[in-house]
Automatic annotation (TrEMBL):
It comes from Actinomadura graeca. InterPro entries: Amidohydro-rel (IPR006680), Metal-dep_hydrolase_composite (IPR011059), Metal_Hydrolase (IPR032466), Metallo-dep_Hydrolase (IPR051781), OTAase-like (IPR057744). Residues 51-396 form the Amidohydrolase-related domain. CDD domains: Met_dep_hydrolase_A. This is Amidohydrolase family protein. It holds the Pfam family Amidohydro_1.
Length: 401
């Protein structure tokens, strides 16, 4: 693999929040240290002072969610879902996301295909199928659908498991298939047809059993939860990341800090649902659940940020709304300083994934995943919120876009 030299770049040190003007050399897919000789056959990009950031990380995606009607995915053949996933992943890469964490849908096949170059897109940290109780957020059967739950589990869907023994077996099975983390639905949600968003799901015994299985495999649990009651139960059970968390309270904030857990707000998806959810397949029952969720999410972000909670970038977009992925930067910048939003999509996200020093940084030895911007995101977050400002996306020291 030839080297890549970025010449005359404005390099953002995300950790310090400061720029350094200079060159950046990439060798063997990694960022090389200062003073290393430039290979004669190295490719050269003259940037004329353009800004360079680490490649972005979106820690809450569903790359197989080609429609917002998740129940419909159960009737799509895997080959068709995969074709859509390839298109969705390519779009994510072009928007500057060189790594994503999929929280139900992507499996080892998609991850391996991306790693082998068969699919163009961000590298995948995947969980396979998320876990749901009967009638929970991952059970997409309508009230009149008595099809056994295991027959509706598909590429793009969750698996239903009830009881301590069953959830242990389900978690072990996803870990057997290489899951980087386990996703559990600990509360109701918007896209699910038969539960309430304010419900709690799974008993404490079931939640603790799932956490025990993940920890035994040196993995962790991410929990879907909205209300403080659901969030607090999940944190007390030992989960590492809370997905959404729009209705957290002071106890939630205390638990997040005490446990060293992460909060992954997903504001862009509610913004998109309010904007045109009916146009991209969101069922009417789900659209009724959206009211007020974005405003609550903004308040939760502000509460968590002021308290020093570890915040991670996530979007949770579905169907055609994937194109709004970068809008999350604009929404969060209403509460946070731009550098804090950038950290949520780089260094802090890398911590959550257990990839500190490898992803989300321009440090020596890190993976050479980079984006080149027209504009200064510290002065105006639109440089990231508008993908048109992304001049180049570099993945593993190769120009990918």
């Amino acid at each position: 693999m030839p080297g890549l030299l970025l010449r005359d770049a404005r390099l953002l040190d995300v950790e310090s929040g400061e720029y350094r003007q200079g060159d950046l050399l990439c060798l063997d897919g990694r960022i090389a240290g200062l003073g290393r000789p430039v290979p004669a056959d190295a490719d050269v990009l003259d940037l004329d002072g353009a800004v360079v950031l680490p490649g972005l990380i979106d820690a809450h995606v569903h790359v197989t969610a080609a429609t917002a009607d998740l129940g419909e995915l159960g009737f799509w053949p895997p080959s068709y879902v995969t074709a859509h996933a390839a298109r969705i992943m390519a779009g994510m890469l072009e928007r500057g996301f060189t790594t994503v964490r999929d929280v139900s849908g992507a499996d080892f096949g998609l991850a391996d295909a991306q790693a082998e170059g068969l699919i163009r897109g961000p590298r995948l940290a995947f969980c396979g199928h998320g876990l749901s109780q009967t009638g929970g957020h991952g059970d997409m059967r309508a009230r009149g659908d008595d099809t056994p739950a295991d027959l509706r589990c598909c590429l793009g869907g969750d698996r239903v498991a009830d009881g301590v023994d069953a959830v242990r077996a389900a978690a072990r099975d996803e870990l057997r298939k290489g899951a980087d983390h386990i996703k559990v639905n600990a509360a109701g949600g918007i896209a699910s047809p038969t539960d309430r968003i304010d419900s709690t799901q799974y008993s404490m015994e079931e939640l603790r059993a799932i956490v025990e299985e993940a920890e035994a495999a040196n993995r962790y649990v991410a929990a879907h939860a909205y209300t403080a009651r659901a969030v607090n139960r999940a944190l007390e059970a030992g989960v590492r990341s809370i997905e959404h968390g729009n209705y957290i309270d002071d106890r939630s904030v205390d638990l997040l800090r005490e446990r060293g857990a992460y909060l992954v707000p997903t504001l862009a998806t509610y913004w998109a649902m309010e904007r045109d959810g009916d146009a991209y397949g969101l069922p009417e029952a789900s659209r009724r659940k959206v009211a007020g969720v974005l405003e609550a999410g903004m308040d939760a972000l502000d509460r968590a940020h002021r308290a020093g909670v570890a915040l991670v970038f996530g979007t949770d977009l579905l169907g055609p709304a994937h194109r709004y992925q970068n809008e999350e930067f604009r929404l969060r910048a209403k509460v946070q300083e731009p550098i804090d939003v950038i950290r949520s999509a780089t260094t802090t996200a890398a911590e959550l994934l257990g990839r500190t020093g490898e992803l989300g940084t321009l440090q020596d030895g890190a993976r050479a995943d980079l984006i080149v911007l027209d504009g200064d995101p510290l002065a105006d977050i639109s440089a990231l919120a508008d993908p048109a400002n992304i001049r180049h996306v570099i993945q593993n020291a190769q120009v990918a876009h």
